[in-house]
Amino acid sequence: MKFWFKWIAIGFLFPVIILFLGLFLYEYWSRIYLAKKYPPPGQLVDVGDSDSKRLRQRKLHLHCEGEGDVTVVLEDGLGPIGSLGWGKVHPPVAQFTKVCAYDRAGIMWSDPSPHPPTADKIAQDLHTALNQAGINPPYVLVGLSMGGIYSRVFAERYPDEVVGMILVDSAHPEQEERFPPAPVNLKPSPINLWLTRQLATMGILRLSHHLPNPNAKRIPPEMLPKLKAFFPQSVRAVQAEAKLFHENLHRVKGRKSLGDRPLIVLTAAKPVPLDKVPRGFTKEYLQKERGVWQELQAELSALSARSRHIISEESSHLMYFDQPELIIDAIHDVVNEVLRDHEL
């Protein structure tokens, strides 16, 4: 009996091992092939800090276009889209000034980092990449969602280099405390997060062509092939940033203002359609949440003595998809103010 049980076990385990090995190899070669099929539109900039001389230096993808005395730097929110998200904003802005979008460590074309993605480390990475690429200040920073927090930290660390800012439906350091208690917990469990990482490593996530993100359906179709190609390897970086979400929010809590630097705060106020209300939530709750969000956004506009607050009922949170022209106009206005102020 033991003899037969042994061979039955081997007969079962052998094809399972072969299957998993095949999946790992599929994912490994897919990453090599797709990196060649979809080369970075910008340059891979060495930001150093490799822990071993045997390893190549860590690189960030920095995509810059246009010419001008002021450089606009686009900072995406928390997610795997990176520089791709600014696809409708980047080219038009390049018509009147230099503009750079980039991918944070581990996202899209950028190498993963051995360091936790604190807001300070993210700002340091960006600063190093700009310097290494010869992209000199002054900078106008544009931050979407969590990118607004990262932009504020950058401005605090390098105050002499930042001359203006646009906050696009930006996160607020007190939003977690001030939002009404959510009726449903939407945070994924640690088990689900771990499972997603394993599925990505084994190639199953790639085979399923699935993007586990509620905003995936709103991504322009021309961006989807590249996003799907790099999503499995961006998962870990996105999860690492999400893990530090609370800490990074509070990094700017009670911090100093932007002085009199030109600032435009763009706020999305498009109501959520009834058929899009998340399960367990009510229309009344979403209205309360939106009311608090408007208060928080108004407070952000008080960060500068020279600010404007623009509220759009035509745009949802991902404004660079819904109303890119609103962001472009805001950038144009701030850049012009900076040029007048500094007689550039």
Tally the structural domains.
1
Radius of gyration in whole Å, from Cα?
Answer: 22 Å
**Spans of at least 5 consecutive residues with low confidence:** 50-55
> Could you name the CATH topology?
Rossmann fold
What is the mean pLDDT? Answer: 84
Structural class: alpha/beta
Helix count, DSSP H or I runs of 4 or more residues:
12
Shape by Cα distribution = globular
The number of distinct β-strands equals 8
Distance between the termini: 87 Å
Provide the β-strand percentage band. 5-15%
Q: Report the top-level CATH class.
A: Alpha Beta
In N-to-C order, the SSE pattern is: HEEEHEHEHEHHHHHEHEHH
Indicate the CATH architecture. 3-Layer(aba) Sandwich
Largest sheet: 8 strands, mixed
Superfamily (CATH H level) name: Alpha/Beta hydrolase fold, catalytic domain
Portion in helices: 40-55%
Spatial strand arrangement across the major sheet: 1-2-4-3-5-6-7-8
Describe, in plain words, how this protein is organized in 3D:
This protein is of the alpha/beta class. The protein has one domain (43-187, 237-342): 3-Layer(aba) Sandwich (Rossmann fold). It has helices spanning 2-37, 90-93, 119-132, 146-157, 175-178, 190-201, 204-208, 224-243, 245-250, 283-301, 319-322, 324-342, and strands spanning 43-48, 58-65, 71-75, 98-102, 139-144, 162-168, 263-268, 307-312. Strands 1-2-4-3-5-6-7-8 form an 8-stranded mixed sheet, sandwiched between helices. The radius of gyration is 22 Å and the shape is globular. The N and C termini lie far apart (87 Å).
